[in-house]
Design a protein that fits this description.
The structure is a single chain. The chain has no helices and five strands. By secondary structure, the chain is mostly beta strands. The chain has one domain (11-84): Nucleic acid-binding proteins (OB fold (Dihydrolipoamide Acetyltransferase, E2P)). The chain has a five-stranded mixed barrel with strand order 1-2-3-5-4.
């Protein structure tokens, strides 16, 4: 009997900050977090490399990405759709 692992891949929305590589875009994902002691909200951001084989992303677009198997050393998200154009 083989066991298959059921996973729910992460889906994130982010702003495209770079498209200078071939088939790859870099997005910035922002999230608002409350400070543990003082309760003030501040913004944390992470950058992720996204596999975009058709180069559909343009600078400043808000796009949706999905987690996938590792495509390269630090690229493990794929492009799904454009939420809003720049």
């Amino acid at each position: 009997m083989t066991s298959t692992k059921q996973t729910n891949p992460r889906r994130l929305q982010g702003i495209v900050v770079s498209t200078s590589m071939q088939k790859t875009a870099v997005i910035r994902v922002d999230r608002r977090v409350a400070h543990a002691k003082y309760g003030k909200y501040f913004t944390l951001s992470n950058k992720f490399k996204v596999h975009d084989p058709e180069s559909a992303c343009k600078l400043g677009d808000v796009i949706e990405v999905q987690e996938t198997r590792p495509i390269s050393k630090d690229k493990y998200f794929t492009y799904l759709s454009t939420v809003s154009a720049a």
